[in-house]
Prior knowledge:
Layout: E1 11-14, E2 24-28, E3 31-34, H1 36-39, E4 45-47, E5 52-53, E6 58-59, E7 64-68, H2 76-88, H3 97-124, H4 127-141, H5 144-163, E8 166-168, H6 171-177, E9 180-185, E10 192-202, H7 207-218, H8 224-233, E11 242-246, E12 250-255, E13 258-263, H9 265-270, E14 283-289, E15 292-303, H10 307-316, E16 320-324, H11 329-339, E17 343-345, H12 350-363, E18 369-374, H13 380-385, E19 388-392, H14 398-403, E20 406-408, H15 414-449, H16 455-473
Parallel strand pairs: 9-16, 9-18, 16-17, 18-19, 19-20
Antiparallel strand pairs: 1-7, 2-5, 2-7, 3-4, 3-6, 8-20, 10-15, 11-12, 12-13, 13-14, 14-15
Amino acid sequence: VDPSEVKVGDVIIINPGEKVPLDGVIIKGSTTLDTKALTGESLPRDVSLNEEVISGCGNLTSQIEVRVSKEFYDSTVSKILDLVENASSQKSKAENFITKFAKYYTPTVVIVALILAIVPSLITSDWSTWIYRALSFLVVSCPCALVISIPLSFFAGIGAASRYGILVKGSNYLEKFNKANIFVFDKTGTLTKGNFAVSKITPEENKEEILRLAAIAEQNSNHPIAHSIVSSYGKEVENGYTLTNIAGQGIVATRGEDSIYCGNEKLMQSKGIKFVKEDGVGTIVYVARNNEYIGSILIADEIKEESKQVIKELNSMNCKTFMLTGDNEAIAKNVANQIGLTGYKASLLPQNKVSEVDNMLKTKGTNEVLCFVGDGINDAPVLMRSDIGIAMGGVGSDAAIEASDIVLMKDDLRGISLAKRIAKKTMRIVFENIWFSLIVKLTILVLSAFGITNMWIAVFGDVGVAVFAILNAMRVNSKYVKEPKE
């Protein structure tokens, strides 16, 4: 049925692989939920009987029955969409220079040409000379160079960006991006890969054996942490073990007298196994065999290879870099320190992110431009509210892509610094065309009015200047170095 038809109190079944469609409470079963698209929390969340689930999460492992607690229009996802709609009404609009310029320029030159043709003719009675001068004046005053070359410069900039997988939704965003100096990032899926990988094994000398035993226990699990362990082992895993999942603790693998224990510290304590407690940012999996402690594995979200380089280049451009995330304080601090961010805020819900960005927008300078970079459903309201929203297009949610102004289709953060360089070159050429066209035209306009130049010079001032401006605009769509400068 359509989610909007479900009433409060109805029971719905959610199978593995499905999205949670409505907020509710679990009345049967237990499972693991992927919440990173909604809250930014990279670690999957284990939920069981009588625990709340919120719409937008992905069900990873088991079937559950949920009693609906909120109707569709009151659900978490609907509230986020409302935030997007409300934020869009507050979006600032970039004014188009050419439209504003032409509003005053065109009637002014037509009136001046009429005055030049009529007033001196009435005084001198030399109508042919002054009408010729007025026509020359009118020809050279035609704003072709501006009207054609300025939009063409922006189109060339947008085209250059698209060749590198950067989609800019309008020339006004390219113009504003040139001034961007505050960059606010989501963490999961943006600065980090949003998946899990083995980052540390203790003790290091038993690395192979610890991974082998853990892979045996985790081989049939659908949990992302289990996948990361098996993937890290990278070899054929032994079969023939009976695998028993102990909710909230881990897995026990048995074959005859041989027993392998793989899980958290609760599993070690419940089995009476003496273990060495490890500290680390991420999830720690302890491994024991036949009641003897073997070692531990630290699982953490991977930071993207290019994150540190991009943040370094943005910092070198005198830009401020911040991170807003739904992850906990320890993880957020660790990521911020590793990649060199200016600042961060952790444990934020979608509405908290909007509040934080609102505060930044209120306190920023008049000429400062704030960009938000994100990929999840939870980032959509902030992408709409910021001066420029940048979405990760490859793995990002449809809501984030729809709400953004610039989309990085290749999920490569290097596109941000590359887009900044393209925007800078575009605006430089735009201003070159504006000043070149105005100076040449004003010079020829004055000379035409005094009869010093003829119609051929006036034609050059119109068509010739336009050709030069167009050729200059085409320089925007040239090759760019994608790698950030070290």
